[in-house]
Amino acid sequence: MNLHWIFCCLWMLCFCSICDAGSSKKEVVKKESAINDLEKQAENSSENEPSDEKKCSLIIPESIKKNVPSDMQYTIFLQLIFNLIRSEYVKNLSECEITEKAIAGMLDSLDPHSSYLNEKALTVLKNQTDGEFGGLGIEITMDEGFVRVISPIDDTPAYKAGIKSGDLIIYIDDECINGITVEEALEKLRGKPKTKVKLKIKRGDKLPIDLEIERDIIKIQSVKTEILDNIGYVRISTFDKNTTKDIKKFLADSRNLHGLVLDLRNNPGGLLEEAVTAANIFLNGGKIVATRGRVSENSKEFFADSGDITNGLPLVVLINSGTASAPEILAGALRDNRRALIVGTRSFGKGSVQKIIPLSEKSAIRLTVAKHYTPNGECIQTNGIVPDIEADYALIKKPDNMFIIREESLNNALDVDKKAKNKKFTDAQNKKAIDELGKKKEKKNNDEEDQELIYRKLSLPEKVDKDYQLNKAFDTIRTIEKFNKINGKRINENK
């Protein structure tokens, strides 16, 4: 036991020195000054939570309890397990390998977003935030032991192959991936451009789907813009370093807009700072988001510091279950500040904050340190953003050969001759419409996946015509515009 004690003390000293060195590195996550009231709330909430000791079911061996001070018992027990693995495990593992696996396992078991980042993972993370990286183009998390797709990114190989938000990846290259970590899954999904990867996808209650997707360099165009009927359409597929700049450029180049639709559906996240600055474009002051953690430096508030550059332009924001993290912050800020109407379905609910803490030049940990709260104090984590107008995903299909009857179609209808624009249907037209009612429509073999692929290739006018959520957003802008015109006319008449 004495040898264990000495070895453990040395191990602890080394571990502490690594942590101290890591904390002296420049943090990847941008720090803001902590707000006093948030600090108090965070402290109070941590005091009210049950202690780790009460929640822990770990049983310390009696030999350690009798011979080791209470404040060192868990550390000694951890070292005991370390030594058992090194001496008894079927494979010969080095101390480095055991330590790395222990750190990775410790972080992976905390929550779906905490993880250990080796040199390769750090490089991938940097490429993602810079807007270019290799792979399939999907944001993933772990669920039920497998890989859950949060969302495919627009125009990437995964998007073009028809992968959807909510898909469960159960096999990669004919290998069952049950129980692997997110980082291990990402490593399997990535590869050299033009190489292929085979996936087995479970989608709801349907039989598994086999897909073969060719990897490519992922160049993200985070913002796409169009104008339809004087309504600006801004599709934000992810938040990278160019997002706010691209939105501002579109607004500066556009003239005579009657309203704006921000499409945040299936946006898996990105940079918090870009979500904050994007919200700043549309707000005249007010809180954007607050983060609350157990330590003061992780409790922050972000406020809008500039005027609304759109001058109050009618604004509708589209969200769905694939809207996660950064876009939820933007949607929550615009909703709570009464700047926009939110249309769609409840968002994903990824409201936790991760900090990248370097341990060395080539490794780091990603640790969940806080949660996001909307300006009204609602926690985004697991709750998501609830839309003002519920509109589920659906394809609009207009009926063919519909039998139409109006007053002017009736025999001897009054004033028919004055209805030049509403002529009666001919007998032949009416007979054809009636005949169609008795015929069974031929069933189409296009399944849901084919419809999704077809939709992704449509132009904006075609999407507005077929996509119920998008159609609802544009109609809402038109309704606001008409209401403002009527209300403005009434105000002028009363003067």
Description:
- The protein is an alpha+beta fold and 495 residues long.
- Among the domains are: 132-219, PDZ domain (Pdz3 Domain, Roll), CATH 2.30.42.10; 223-390, 2-enoyl-CoA Hydratase, Chain A, domain 1 (Alpha-Beta Complex), CATH 3.90.226; 397-438 and 454-466, no CATH class.
- The chain has 16 helices and 19 strands.
- Strands 3, 4, 5, 6, 7 and 8 form a 6-stranded antiparallel sheet that branches. The chain has a 6-stranded mixed sheet with strand order 10-11-12-15-16-19, sandwiched between helices.
- It starts with a helix and ends with a helix.
- The relative contact order is 0.10.
- Mean pLDDT is 81; it is low at 1-48, 419-424 and 440-449.
Short key terms for the protein model shown above:
single chain, 495 residues, alpha+beta, Pdz3 Domain, 2-enoyl-CoA Hydratase, Chain A, domain 1, six-stranded antiparallel beta sheet, 16 helices, 19 strands, 38% helix, globular
CATH class of the domain at 223-390: Alpha Beta
What is the beta-strand fraction?
15-25%
Q: Distance between termini?
A: 92 Å
Gross CATH architecture of the domain at 223-390: Alpha-Beta Complex
Let me know the average pLDDT. Answer: 81
Which consecutive residue ranges, at least 5 long each, have pLDDT under 50?
A: 1-48, 419-424, 440-449
How many individual helices?
A: 16
Q: Which descriptor suits the 3D outline?
A: globular
CATH superfamily of the domain at 223-390: 2-enoyl-CoA Hydratase, Chain A, domain 1
Whole-angstrom Rg: 29 Å
Report the major sheet. Answer: 6 strands, antiparallel
**Strand-pairing-aware structural class:** alpha+beta
Helix content: 25-40%
What is the fold named in CATH at topology level of the domain at 223-390? Answer: 2-enoyl-CoA Hydratase, Chain A, domain 1
Strand count: 19
